[in-house]
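User: quick one, fold this
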Amino acid sequence: MAILTWPDDLPWETRRDGFSAPFADGRIRTDMEDGPGRVRLRNGSPLRPMTIVLDMTAAQHARLERFWAEDTRHGVLPFFFRHPLRFGLPLLAGDPALPVLMADGREILIDHWLLCQFGSAPPAPAPLPGGRLRVTIALVVHP
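Assistant:
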């Protein structure tokens, strides 16, 4: 079975407000009676939480519902999602950092994808003026 990809007919560029991508935290903390707690690493690689916020039309929201329900089986199956902070940026090198160019003079753009699953809560739409929707989506990024 092939891994799914975020549908091309859905937006992927997240809004700045509401976006969150903290580091993966694989630590276990144990409180002690006195002094600082003990910290150790969990077994295995931790998942990284990420929250994205997308503005969509009603038709795009319907497509997202279909992707959630049918393609990912109600958020269970993983899929590839464009990295919101890196995808499409020019590749830089040197000091000062300058774009790396192809032989024809075009910039090389970063093509960075993340393997994700929907997080603990399903996508949550909120109405916007003009019949649009602002959808908050919790994801977990696999290592």
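User: anything notable?
Assistant: The mean pLDDT is 90.
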